[in-house]
User: What shape does this take?
Amino acid sequence: MLPVVDVFAGPGGLNEGFAQFKRDGEPVFDITASFEMDRHAVQTLKIRSAVRALSRDTELYGPYRDLLASKTSVRDLLGNAEFAAQMAKAEDHVHAIELGPEARAEAGRLIKGAISGAEHWVLIGGPPCQAYSLIGRARRTNDESFEDDKKHFLYREYLDILRRFRPSVFVMENVKGLLSAGHGGKSMMDRIIDDLQLGGAYEIRSLAVPGGDVEPRDFVLRAERYGIPQARHRVILVGVRSDIGTQRLVPLAQTASVTTVRDAIGDLPQVKSSVSRRRPGGLTWGSAQILGSTLAKREVHGVPRLPATDGTAHAELRTWLNGCSAPISLHEPRAHMDLDLARYAYLAILAARGISRRVHEFPPGLRPMHSNISGQGTPFSDRFKVQRWDAPSSTVASHISKDGHYYIHPDARQMRSLTVREAARLQTFPDDYWFAGPRTMQYHQVGNAVPPLLAVQIAERVAAVLDR
Assistant: This one.
């Protein structure tokens, strides 16, 4: 198998895609090293490594299946001697390291061991993207420290690995905001591409369009064009060492139709949220539903519902998500404030008829009590958003960990935001994928990942380049 080193690994989206890619039933890639600084994501990676080692094809390791079915706890699973032994082995290749100048010697030693003199190997991963994010930049417009933010140059750690170890192929992922980001008056995108070529040692290619004569925007992969039930647009750079050549590298194949929210989560059990921090005189769950639905029905009288699809057009997605018939885990809804519940019901009923509302357009009884909420210039005036059944979802981002307003479930009867499992399905994580840590950190991990089903398509293209 071809060694793969995963840097800035997060919970393992790219990692999972490369690990799952098979040819003639046999895996092509071996994840020999993963580097990640977040302790919860590190635990996620270790658990996933142990599960891969102990499971067989579509047969999940029994004690792990019990965890997914809520028959046992994470602590009990980690106390299982067989599982604990595999977790110990995972320590050898899952490394809790914050990559940076201070860690270069240690990271270099570990990478050297991971590739072990292999003729061909692959580097994957994307530097943390907060500094490039359009939202992040907007929030820090007047922040004098922004220009000096070290996140701007974490890609240099990626570059350092390229210089020292010369992988056969690398895959670097980042946010679309990189296209418009600048530093010191220069385009970050142009600068990064120029750096990554290492003076002609690498050819940088797009997976969206063929050939080398491309514009920066051509490096953007729009995930919904490739069977992902999410409008996630990310920069993906593929670098191939010049002595290998890019003749075998072809763009990803676009799907004939889009995959929808219904395709991804329509078969999950219905669950209802509850009221958090109930205030004196506040609404009960039922009262919130009545308020939201009453206000919505005044606006949609005579407006027909959008036609529904049956959610069966993408059976291959269902097989990918739950081919091993894993129990549904991490599907407990968050509690919400009473008026947020009413807003969710109101907006979901409108969305079923193709109607959306910005915050300043809400009925007075549902309008948040903010001093700056009344006009068109309201910051983040579209912060409440229903994910419509019959379209790909919005980008599942790490912000989902803070609140669920942008990720409202389309079923007004459930009156809630998306669960961790629903967000994970929109990201195409299989149902047998467990995320470690408290729920806030589970959401954060899901939002920071590359969709594994997109990653497996990338892995297929990389394998073709190295097929000799």
In short: Residues 39-54 form the longest helix (16 residues). Confidence is low (pLDDT under 50) at residues 133-138. The domain at 2-257+447-465 is CATH 3.40.50.150 (Rossmann fold). The radius of gyration is 23 Å.
